[in-house]
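Table S4 entry, Inter-alpha-trypsin inhibitor heavy chain H3.
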Amino acid sequence: MSGLLGIRLLLLWGCGCLWLTSPTSAALVIFEDTEAPEETTGAATWLQKRSTNETMPQVEVHSVTVDCTVTSRFAHTVITSVALNRANSSKEIFFEVELPKSAFITNFSMEIEGKVYVGEVKEKEKAKKQYEKAVSSGHTAGLVKASGRKMEKFSVSVSIAAESNVTFILTYEELLQRKLGQYEIQIRVKPKSLVQQFRILANIYEPQGLSYVDAQATFLSNELLPLVEKTVTDKKAQISFSPTVEQQRKCPGCDGTLIDGDFIIKYDVNRQGSLGDIQIVNGYFVHFFAPPDLPRVPKNVVFVIDRSGSMFGRKMAQ
């Protein structure tokens, strides 16, 4: 019996979370990929359980992994989570993750009993109609909605057969914005239960060099603080946090978890010249600059690319 009960279509639609090359609002549709590879990597996140027997945990969050890679202020975050249904009947498993409003989803997929269900970006209105049709037919569906001033919430639920497991994979990307003299990576972590394997890993590479790197969390206690490992060199930094099940407990022998809040990484880069730093990759360029001698006042910045006749010849080529 298939572990994916009653699912024909899974889709995600919303305005604030997904970006396309065109200004049209987008949506993410999930469908069964019969040609998917046997092994998949990616991301997924926090799970909840719905069970008629609350005294005996029948849905187990086996692992939660957050893998963030930052290169030249551009963050690529992959969240992977595996949940197990240990009951002798099917159970509904919920997957929820909050991500920054400035981020955009590039992949969402699920793997159940060897089958992979992959996301596809579609135009908003078309996807909305498919979403409503899926919901009215009783099929599984997901959506993005506002969670606060700085965060968006992605949520989806799926029914899993007895003694089966599901792997959720979510990937999102974000161009980090410099505020108050630093860049910030915010990772919202709310597993809601103890996790057998929990890990946050962030790798940062900045060609200009790192001036400082700091990692903190709203839930860090004196016991958890030493578990944040940080290695910093001239241009690279690695931050990891991987507590055991016992270290996650609120108290010895209880099922409550201390992991509930924001894991925040702050850093800045070296700036030796007032003209900033220009990087060119695959025909595209980005110009970073933060003049230290200008007063910090509200201002509008206008970028001008001159394509007039006076630029003809070598100037235009440059």
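Confidence is low (pLDDT under 50) at residues 1-56.
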